[in-house]
Amino acid sequence: ISMFQILIYCYSEAIKSSREIEKMCKYDLRILYLLQGQKSPDHSTINRFRQKLEPFVEKILEKNNKFLIDNKLLDASSIYIDGTKIEANANKYTFVWKKAVIKFKDKLIKKVIKYFNLDETIEENSLIKFLENENKKLSKKIESENIVIVHGKGKRKTDTQKKFELIDQYLTKFLEYNKHLEIIGERNSYSKTDHDATFMRMKDDHMLNGQLKPAYNIQFATSGNFILGIYGSHHPSDMYTLPLLINKLYPIYKNKMDKIVCDAGYESEENYVFLDEKKLRAFIKPSNYEISKIRKYKKKQEFRENLIYDKDLDQYKTEEGKIFLRIKDRKKVKKSGYISISKVYKCFDWNLNGTKTKSIWFTEIFEKYRLKSLENITSNEGINERVNRSVQAEGAFSKLKEGLKYSRFKHKGLKNILSEMNLMAIAMNLNTLTYKILNKDFNPTRYISVEEKVA
């Protein structure tokens, strides 16, 4: 217990290095009080304790939050979600790109097929087995004919040795490429010094050249200035992380959760449908919210809104009598497997501004949910929720990066960095609780910008 108290206290004071914690244990009076005369731990003991703590740290954060809810200090009805990219503990120039690996592998396959004059339709596994068999044959030949394997300057290699070494080189390359693809999985890249890290474009671009760095996309779910849950992702886009984070929180807080408040980066049809199935209200800012205020965009929207729909013929008609016929359905399959369907309509006699045809399309499910979310965020309740998201969700990352000086991970591997983030969350929650106790504020934190109507 003393070790855990020391660890959380040091994290709350922006001290994360095991050697710095060791130094604090020797000289800091507050930690000496926690030790109660026990021998101060060295850096190796601290690191071993952190490793053993990893399977339990998420549960500890959950128990702490349950304590806050039970004591009316936290209300988990509104969940504010935001994400940030934090640089991994990996070198910048250790990238492996999936497309490059696939390209080089295809070139290798063509080279082997051409060299051995094989059938072009041969499968990769069969090709590798063929090379292994050829390698065994040549190995036996070298042994039976007592061929001396030579290397170095002035030595002449036999044709058998040359062929044996070439096949061995091909097999090594196949093994290397397949290992790269196995590590990458569904990602587009990975770092050789931290296999779980993915190369992403960061906000901190000091060279202004769009340099990619190995990083993790970290998602925080906050409420009442407390961190409820954390999710780490390889994907640079926030859109794909929302269902995964909610699935972590839902079994724990499903009786409390009501509103999910996010910025425009989380908007998608899949996310809207997911939240609706969970019976959670979406307060997601539409991605076209800002541009919708521009006159040109408004004019475009007015055109769509003024179209007259004929349900029987499934077609649209303009005020001038131009007809848009439904020509096809456009299917879009997301990475998660979700299928979004858009209805495409075309006018074949448009002849306006020199254009003979004009197409429009409608994604009915998405537009229905977007309209509902827009109503939510523009209501008085929604305005307050957006203010709270800006203060609480973005504020949590501000405390982490600026307050606690955490801008780069110290550990490697997704499992280890999530353990580190959960420890940081416990420390940050402890700081928030301390502030509330000192200010005698024993109610859930919520900022009010405009007055809400009481139902």
From TrEMBL:
Residues 3-52 form the Transposase InsH N-terminal domain. Residues 354-433 form the Transposase DDE domain. Transmembrane segments: none annotated. This is DDE transposase. It comes from Helcococcus ovis.
